[in-house]
Amino acid sequence: MGFWSDKNVCVTGGAGFLGRVVCDRLRERGAEEVFVPRSRDFDLTRAEAAKRLFDKAKPDVVIHLAAEVGGIGANRKRPGRFFYANMAMGVHLIEEARIRGVDKFVQVGSVCGYPKHCPVPFCEEDLWNGYPEETNAPYGVTKRALSVMLDAYRAEYDFNGVYLLPVNMYGPGDNFDLETSHVIPALIRKLHEAARGGGGSVTCWGTGNATREFLYVDDAADAIIKASEVHNDPAPINLGTGAEIKVSDLVARIAQLVGFDGKVIWDTSYPDGQPRRRLDTTKAKTLLDWQAKVDLDEGLRRTIEWFRGEHA
Q1: What is the mean pLDDT of residues 283-302?
Q2: Rounded distance, CA 133 to CA 255, Å?
Q3: SS3 15
Q4: pTM greater than 0.90 (yes/no)
Q5: Domain ranges, ordered by start, for the chain
Q6: I need a surface site. Which of 88, 90, 111, 273 has the fewest CB within 10 A?
Q7: How far apart are CA 173 and CA 188, in angstroms?
Q8: Which residues, in sequence order, are CB contacts of 237 under 8 Å at separation 6+?
């Protein structure tokens, strides 16, 4: 608890889905000064905005969660913007943190950085052994590159950076916009609305044969806080449950929970994305003494309950 009591903390993306939970956890653990920059005030894709942020927040610890991101559709529509925005934000913030002598910089990466045909389970050492899946490669490459930047800054400047690699996150407060959301919130919304409207069918992208691993947002936040407190190395650490599920099975599970009993149509003109995703979480258990607590069934129930309450 005492780790945070005398520190100024800056959480970029702190008003977002994951960031709100991280900020709540920080305050619970004694952090009195938590600064959350808003994009309308600080366009962190610009170096001058990063400088103004550090002038105002004077952070001892930076937790960089801010990102421009979406599902397969959003990545296909905006690959250039996703590359530029995510690379620029990370580069400006890490460099400014180095200049200001920040005690610790925590960079949250993405499972999208792993190679398309990475051996399963994904081990951190395989991060650079191939090109990412094409539909989200521009975004994934930027997240990879920031891990290299942190490693280089440790070697040259003794900069204290930490790099975390979570799988797809979900939970209450997620983005349920069908144009930009990820798989779980998109499926919850589609199937819930079809069940309420008496729709006879729902169309889903791909074949349904790809697998994914999902991490409940509260578990992800706990891991980020723990890493901020105890870890001091830029080598990537996977954050996940270590369990994968076929997308078709995920659809069936959500359909049962929301009461949809119609037909699911698979539109194979859309890509599956990466064929499989499952992480090796050994390092997180060993180095952080952390492992996920909320299983997928419980997490889905909580998320659907929240969604129904918000969209009644």
Answers
A1: 98
A2: 28
A3: coil
A4: yes
A5: 8-170+214-243+275-293
A6: 88
A7: 13
A8: 124, 162, 163, 164, 165, 227, 231, 283, 284, 287, 288
Reported as a single tens digit per residue, the pLDDT across 16-44 is 999 999 999 999 999 989 999 999 999 99
By residue count, the chain amounts to 312
User: Thinking of the domain 8-170+214-243+275-293, which architecture would CATH place it in?
Assistant: 3-Layer(aba) Sandwich (3.40)
Q: What is the mean pLDDT of residues 79-103?
A: 97
pLDDT at 179: 81
Using alpha carbons, list the distances in angstroms from residue 240 to 154, 234, 281.
26, 18, 6
- Rounded Cα gap, residues 138 and 151, in angstroms: 21
Report the catalytic residues.
139
d(CA 127, CA 287): 19
CA atoms within 13 A on the CB side of 292: 26
Tokens of 105: 């910089």
**Structure tokens given for 279:** 């992480």
The answer to whether the CB of 186 falls within 8 A of the CB of 71 is yes
55: exposed, middle or buried (Cβ count in 10 Å: 0-12, 13-18, 19+): exposed
> In this predicted structure, what is the pLDDT of residue 50?
98
**DSSP-derived secondary structure letter, 183:** H
C-alpha 257/C-alpha 165 separation (Å) is 29
Q: Is the pLDDT of residue 68 over 80?
A: yes
For 157, the token pair is: 């400047």
Where residue 1 falls among pLDDT bands split at 50, 70, 90? Answer: low
Over residues 172-219, the pLDDT tens digits come to 999 999 888 889 999 999 999 999 987 789 999 999 999 999 999 999
